[in-house]
Amino acid sequence: MGGDKQEEDPAVASAREPLTAFLAAWAGHDAVKAASYTDTPDGAASLLTSVLTNLKPSRTTIDGGEGRREADGKARFPFTVAMEVPGAGAVTWTSHAQVSDASGTWKVEFTSPMIHPELSSGQTLALKSVGNRAQVLDAEGDPLRAESLVGSVDPVSGKGASGLEARYDAVLSGGRKSVKSLVVADRQSGRAVKELSEEAPAEGRPVHTTIDPRVQKAAADALTGSDAHAAVVAVDPRNGHILAAANRPGGFNRALEGRYPPGSVFKVVTAAALLEGGMKAESPAPCPKFARVDGQRFENQKQFELPAGSTFADAFTQSCNTYFVNARDRLSDTDLRDTAQAFGIGGRWDVGTTTYDGSVPVTTSDNDKAAATIGQARIQASPLVMASVAATVKTGRFSQPVLVPDAVKETYRAPAELDAGVARELRELMRATVTSGSAHALKGLSGRPHAKTGTAEFGSGTPPRTHAWMIGYQGDLDLAWAVLLEDGGSGGADAGPVAARFLRNLAR
């Protein structure tokens, strides 16, 4: 009847069986098994192996169409191959297979065009890179040599996998959906002889960064030999351009993304708040071994104390914790947060890459405020944030750090300004910290360095483990910087020598 499905010719149905097995084995990426259903197993296995090795499909589906009987005991079947090929995406083509029972058993007749209609004998399918992937460049236009910043490219897909390579993949690759194209290639030479993909080649555009190769090398070399996980960041105080961001080891960009208690390097911010409240460098500043706040004991590193008659300048340059803790009563619950805003801390920075931009919350208790004055409690910062703090002291104003200027859409503006007189006093204090205080590792270096040391406690161990910090700027150069050693000991004794190596490297 007209509505009944016509039964398949018995010969066609018999011929379909080896073809179905052949296509299933091919789809399962078993070249030898697929070839066993052909009339030329060695040749079929060789070509299928070549195609699967070259394309490395993650998934293959093959759908067979309706067959028809032909003369001389043969049947012809269409089929469609659909592959997911890393780097090339979805690859699809339609071909035909002829099945014969000339030997008394139905076999798939193997020919190169049966695998792909564009293939001839001696040819195979292969992949070719599409266009050229551009590079991430330093400030001088050369390829950037900074693995944690640049990141990596997936060797299979050809797409950016981490760092700037991932963030700017579309720019660097030219916006291509695929980075590889399907071609017919000569099996002996491997040379592409015919393009099969329709996507036009696209050229990527380079990504220009602000990294100064000389400063970057000086920073990276300063970390050589360090056992701690460490970072050195340098910025140009005039415009916030990030000149260096070195990490040891690579992998995690702790220089820009790390979140750490800043410890005593945060005393630059606390000092600014106290100076704004009327404190003077010559103001009396008692510095006992211990300070107690609601049963919590604070102490100075190695429990030092300063002699009677010590001043605020002495407390800052020697990094006296107990003085700053006891000075908390001069500060409101919002003073540290408000002063930190003048340094840009806690804003949303549009840098051109992922950064952690710091946090200075409103204090919620006496103990919280006491710890916050010395950069503990809930205060957090990245090395980039603290380098920017030093840069703000040098120029007297906050300039948001920038790594990829072309990508910046809206530069963050600090909602408050640092008082000019306060900035001037901070500069004097940071210089004195080098010449007669805890940053003595830099004493005698060229460039008139200004600095502040920091030893930041973390964890719950007894005694507590500490991160080592030093931040500063060069009085004679457009350079501000921060050094961090994770679980690295003391700011003066451990971070100080790293900072000194960095500055000496720059002076060479």
Notable traits:
508 residues; alpha+beta; five-stranded antiparallel β-sheet; 17 helices; 17 strands; 30% helix; 20% strand; disordered N terminus
Ordered list of secondary-structure elements with their pairings:
Layout: H1 10-27, H2 31-35, H3 41-55, E1 59-64, E2 68-70, E3 74-85, E4 89-100, E5 107-108, H4 112-115, E6 123-129, E7 136-137, H5 147-150, H6 163-167, H7 169-173, E8 180-186, E9 192-195, E10 207-208, H8 213-223, E11 230-235, E12 242-248, H9 254-257, H10 267-276, E13 290-293, E14 296-299, H11 312-317, H12 321-326, H13 335-341, H14 366-372, H15 383-395, H16 420-436, E15 449-458, E16 465-474, E17 480-485, H17 491-507
Parallel strand pairs: 7-10
Antiparallel strand pairs: 1-3, 2-3, 3-4, 4-5, 6-8, 8-9, 11-12, 11-17, 13-14, 15-16, 16-17
Helix pairs in contact: 8-17, 10-13, 10-16, 15-16
- Helix/strand/pairing class, anyone? alpha+beta
| Unreliable parts | 1-5
* Number of helical regions: 17
Rg from C-alpha positions? 34 Å
Number of strands: 17
For the termini, the CA-CA separation is 96 Å
Strand content: 15-25%
Helicity, as a percent range? 25-40%
The largest sheet, given as strand count, sense and whether it forms a barrel, is:
5 strands, antiparallel
The backbone outline, from C-alpha atoms, is elongated
Q: For the residues shown, what is the average pLDDT?
A: 94
Give an overview of the whole structure.
The chain has 508 residues and is an alpha+beta fold. 30% of the residues lie in helices and 20% in strands. It contains 17 helices and 17 strands. It has helices at residues 10-27, 31-35, 41-55, 112-115, 147-150, 163-167, 169-173, 213-223, 254-257, 267-276, 312-317, 321-326, 335-341, 366-372, 383-395, 420-436, 491-507; strands at 59-64, 68-70, 74-85, 89-100, 107-108, 123-129, 136-137, 180-186, 192-195, 207-208, 230-235, 242-248, 290-293, 296-299, 449-458, 465-474, 480-485. The strands form 5 sheets. Strands 1, 2, 3, 4 and 5 form a 5-stranded antiparallel sheet that branches. Strands 12-11-17-16-15 form a 5-stranded antiparallel sheet, sandwiched between helices. A 3-stranded antiparallel sheet has the order 6-8-9. Helix 15 packs across helix 16.
